[in-house]
Amino acid sequence: MQLSKQVWLIPGENPGQGYLCGTNVYVVGSGKSRVMIDACTKNVLKFLANIKEFCQTQQCTIDRILITHGHHDHYAGAFDIVELLIQNGFSTNPSVFKFVDEKLETDRNRLMEHPEIESYLFNTRDGDVFTVINAPGETPITLTCVETPGHIDDHLCFLLQQEGEDNMLFTGDHIIGADSSYFTNYPEYLRSLDKVRDLTIKLDIKKYFVAHSYTLTKDDIMLDGLAKVEELIASRKEKDYR
Ligand SMILES: [Zn+2]
């Protein structure tokens, strides 16, 4: 499903408790080589078939996969996708980028559970910029990593910027299409909410693309940025006050 000129949704096809409709996986760019955001979980055949169909109908490759964080519904499917891209000739050398910190328990677990991904995995961190070349005549996109710990220590959001277009943010599980997200570190989570609010104001970010939503309608997937983050901050303050 096309959400904007340069952003497509590939549903993760993994609905369930805690996942709402499943993982919303995004593909960015209108050129030949595109960037995927998040990888869903392992062995979801319908999701993998959707990626294959997407690359065929769009006549594109996916060479880079950016991971918002190490929870299995965002990360564990990365190797399946890498294999699919190589086996179908969509990409010869796909790369997976994630904020890797081997001190983190999640990363140690993830690497032990999925050692096969290691040769495709590269570290990325706050401030790193990925450039996406669009179709001829269109300006390129940049995706910038924004460190947002709290939901989990290794969480990144990705800021989308393109000259002449609205700024957008892929919020992963930091901000989802529900009242609140689950968090492992509450003070960090609150600091990251403030960080995203300040960035939203500073850069006039219009929309958030969330990783989980109640439905797969555009209104549930693409939220009004400032209204959403302010609502979350206000509801946290109210709960803390009680
Ligand atoms: Zn998560």
Automatic annotation (TrEMBL):
<dbReference type="InterPro" id="IPR001279">
    <property type="entry name" value="Metallo-B-lactamas"/>
</dbReference>
<dbReference type="InterPro" id="IPR036866">
    <property type="entry name" value="RibonucZ/Hydroxyglut_hydro"/>
</dbReference>
<feature type="domain" description="Metallo-beta-lactamase">
    <location>
        <begin position="22"/>
        <end position="212"/>
    </location>
</feature>
<dbReference type="Pfam" id="PF00753">
    <property type="entry name" value="Lactamase_B"/>
</dbReference>
<protein>
    <recommendedName>
        <fullName>Metallo-beta-lactamase domain-containing protein</fullName>
    </recommendedName>
</protein>
<dbReference type="InterPro" id="IPR050662">
    <property type="entry name" value="Sec-metab_biosynth-thioest"/>
</dbReference>
